[in-house]
């Protein structure tokens, strides 16, 4: 055998190969561009850089190719006498299309929007009404709670308020509760807080919309039970929307709050009575959660978060109502808004604001006294 150099007709790379004497047909695969080379005469061109041991001249290194040479498949030689066909790119296997998920034979899932402790949220298309919707599929809900929410849905369907995400439908999908809501682009308040705290005046203004929505819901005997930054939505038009209204009972009764660390983020905003007796949570629990949420957006950290992720420490701190006060977090905060937060987060339910409207009025008074 003789060693000859061959030059790729496409990319110009030069390769060295052992060839039998008088072999009329020479077949080489370019190690750079993977094109099959047919050449009757070896190239006399000498590579500019000699190849290191074990590598052909002119070829890219394994790191440049993104794979080892052992992974490269070289096609078998073409038998003598067959016509010289143009290089062919191997046919790629046809990938089967992903199966479309349909719910209730009406909603076609398009993509996942997010995931939380209790389930996942998807963007879906309502084929019946030809519009995009948000679909939340929950986990860990028993039959009793599913039936409860389906009854509650009759009330939710009638709620019409500019600061409440519109409820559209609910049902059972493979044993799991699903809720269909209007789809609005934007971000949650929790996402916004990744940029840092919110100025007191803006924070107070934002929470007046939340309290307006809760007051409207209370008039229809609906208690939220899970107010927190993740359940307050800011649309692209800077409108404030409360989400998961009416779902709090399903969430708090689906999980043993005293035994799981999966919902620590929710517990930061819950009063002690709701953690101890979730079924007893009522309007005062929502008032507490609004106060805890306002605390978070003023200083960028949730109350009791200094307890870390240890449930025992958190429950003990809740029992003693022992959390770092706002003034210690930020001494420059106005006293008026600190008093509003602390009254909403009073340890005893009877010491908090009696209604959402009462707390909203206090925040509006603060805004009037602090026009800038």
TrEMBL record:
The keyword Lipid metabolism does not apply. Signal peptide: none annotated. It comes from the Bacteria. GO terms for molecular function: ATP binding; protein serine/threonine kinase activity. Residues 76-97 are annotated as: Disordered. The keyword Transferase applies. This is Serine/threonine-protein kinase PknB. It comes from Uabimicrobium amorphum.
């Amino acid at each position: 055998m003789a060693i000859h150099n061959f030059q790729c007709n496409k990319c110009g790379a030069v390769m060295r190969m052992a060839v039998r004497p008088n072999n009329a047909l020479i077949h080489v695969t370019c190690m750079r561009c993977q094109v099959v080379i047919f050449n009757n005469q070896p190239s006399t061109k000498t590579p500019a850089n000699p190849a290191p041991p074990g590598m052909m001249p002119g070829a890219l290194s394994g790191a440049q190719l993104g794979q080892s040479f052992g992974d490269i498949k070289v096609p078998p030689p073409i038998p003598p006498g067959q016509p010289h066909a143009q290089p062919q790119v191997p046919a790629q296997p046809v990938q089967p299309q992903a199966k479309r998920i349909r719910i209730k034979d009406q909603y076609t899932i398009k993509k996942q929007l997010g995931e939380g402790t209790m389930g996942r949220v998807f963007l879906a298309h309502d084929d019946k009404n030809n519009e995009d919707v948000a679909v939340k599929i929950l986990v860990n809900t028993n039959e009793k709670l599913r039936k409860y929410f389906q009854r509650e849905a009759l009330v939710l369907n009638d709620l019409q308020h500019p600061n409440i995400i519109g409820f559209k439908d609910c049902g059972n999908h493979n044993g799991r509760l699903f809720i269909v809501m209007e789809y609005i682009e934007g971000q949650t308040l929790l996402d916004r807080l990744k940029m840092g705290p919110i100025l007191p005046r803006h924070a107070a203004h934002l929470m007046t919309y939340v309290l307006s929505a809760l007051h409207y819901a209370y008039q229809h005997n609906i208690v939220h039970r899970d107010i927190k930054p993740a359940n307050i939505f800011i649309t692209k038009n800077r409108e404030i929307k409360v989400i998961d209204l009416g779902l709090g009972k399903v969430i708090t009764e689906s999980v043993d709050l005293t035994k799981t660390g999966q919902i620590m983020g929710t517990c930061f905003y819950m009063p002690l009575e709701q953690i101890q007796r979730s079924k007893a949570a009522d309007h005062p629990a929502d008032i507490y959660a609004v106060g805890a949420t306002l605390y978070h957006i003023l200083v960028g950290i949730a109350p009791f978060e200094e307890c870390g992720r240890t449930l025992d420490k958190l429950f003990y701190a809740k029992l003693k109502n022992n959390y770092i006060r706002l003034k210690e977090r930020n001494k420059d905060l106005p006293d008026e808004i600190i008093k509003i937060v602390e009254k909403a987060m009073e340890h005893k339910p009877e010491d908090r604001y009696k209604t959402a409207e009462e707390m909203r009025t206090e925040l509006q008074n603060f805004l009037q006294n602090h026009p800038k």
